Amino acid sequence: xxxxxxxxxxxxxxxxxxxxxxxxxxxxxxxxxxxxxxxxxxxxxxxxxxxxxxxxxxxxxxxxxxxxxxxxxxxxxxxxxxxxxxxxxxxxxxxxxxxxxxxxxxxxxxxxxxxxxxxxxxxxxxxxxxxxxxxxxxxxxxxxxxxxxxxxxxxxxxxxxxxxxxxxxxxxxxxxxxxxxxxxxxxxxxxxxxxxxxxxxxxxxxxxxxxxxxxxxxxxxxxxxxxxxxxxxxxxxxxxxxxxxx
Length: 246
Ligand SMILES: *[C@@H]1O[C@H](CO)[C@@H](O)[C@H](O)[C@H]1NC(C)=O
Ligand SMILES: *[C@@H]1O[C@H](CO)[C@@H](O)[C@H](O)[C@H]1NC(C)=O
Ligand SMILES: *[C@@H]1O[C@H](CO)[C@@H](O)[C@H](O)[C@H]1NC(C)=O
Ligand SMILES: *[C@@H]1O[C@H](CO)[C@@H](O)[C@H](O)[C@H]1NC(C)=O
Ligand SMILES: CC(=O)N[C@H]1CO[C@H](CO)[C@@H](O)[C@@H]1O
Hints:
Helix content is 13%, strand content 34%. The chain contains 4 helices and 8 strands. The protein has an 8-stranded antiparallel barrel with strand order 1-2-3-4-5-6-7-8. It starts with a helix and ends with a strand.
């Protein structure tokens, strides 16, 4: 419980890092950090992302800007899953599962840049059996959950799985098309180092939620360099920012 309390404190306090710490409890500053954990937070009505941009590294051409508008900014908290290939003795990806917080109201805050670091510290410190969804629901003050990220069968019928962002049970409940299944168009090793999963750009192959999805600011998620034959599947905790454009 200590970890959750601390995580909740982070959600309240993170954007205050660049400003004097607000008094605890109400009032909620308009445009301020407490929106992240307010039940009434609505990224569409409270925090326009119409002119928001994504900061891509300038020394690369793998990830490219899109001319469409940012619709959602999410903080993903979850695990990258791997199985051991007993021939190559390396871990291969078997997908990922993550819960996406709505951080749209934080995009213009100075502390947005370090959100993933604090979140990753809290996530890695949370007790082993806890899922991201449990972590979020235990925050008490009901942060807005955008939806879930997970993998589904490739819609083309080809072998393998495809990443999906599914907001049909949360921020877009009732809209059965509020999802996007993506195909990777860009894959950049994380600028922060080999233990962080790659930054990605994906295009829509199915669903109405977005035309382009980015995964950036990753922390963690990479498997050990090798495995031994018969090693069980593993889950590696990670955090990332997800930006959905349409
Ligand atoms: C976005 O930019 C346009 C053009 O500069 C401006 O008219 C509009 O008010 C801006 N919208 C928001 C929400 O900032
Ligand atoms: C991946 O991990 C999640 C828990 O984080 C689990 O629910 C899911 O079943 C795992 N998926 C695979 C393919 O191992
Ligand atoms: C496992 O590794 C072998 C040898 O590198 C490779 O041929 C095979 O495609 C891998 N299997 C999977 C499922 O990636
Ligand atoms: C690109 O810039 C980032 C910092 O923004 C740096 O960490 C990275 O090493 C650079 N990559 C290359 C290939 O120069
Ligand atoms: C936290 C917050 O400011 N929530 C507001 C979001 O916008 C709606 C109206 O669109 C208000 O009712 C909420 O209070």
